[in-house]
């Protein structure tokens, strides 16, 4: 039977915490994503309910070439880090990241309490992302799989 609703916190966490190469996994330790959109078969955009434990980051700081992203803070006080600097966020605040701008971003939980937020992004095929603080880039192949590469193009 097709699912029509659920309590978001009852959704199972993502089975694999991250697709990042092994040497980058510690940077997102303490992050838990619940892929809500997938549970309803959504294909045009994704929705994740994401929890950041104290000290955790949402991702490595990155900028997408073709996919827009949006976050809405439900609980806690993360710090948003972009090319322009740092901005403290609180429940009820949101931020958006237009594809192709090169404005690399991520959230970091520097508080002593968990952060809970919704992240929404489109699923435009042929995307790539750059990681200005790390020797990494990611490209999407024709089947939609992500390939993590060093900045010089060699694979991990």
Shape: globular
Strand ordering within the main sheet: 1-2-9-4-7
Strand content: 35-45%
Q: Sheet bearing the most strands, described? A: 5 strands, antiparallel
Overview of the molecule:
This protein has a single domain, classed as Sandwich (Jelly Rolls). 3% of the residues lie in helices and 38% in strands. It contains one helix and twelve strands. The protein has one helix spanning 36-39; strands spanning 31-35, 45-52, 63-64, 69-75, 79-82, 85-88, 94-97, 105-108, 115-122, 128-131, 136-140, 146-149. The protein has a five-stranded antiparallel sheet with strand order 1-2-9-4-7. It has a four-stranded antiparallel sheet with strand order 3-10-11-12, with no helix packed on it. The protein has a three-stranded antiparallel sheet with strand order 6-5-8, with no helix packed on it. Strand 5 (79-82) and strand 6 form a beta hairpin. It is globular, with a radius of gyration of 15 Å.
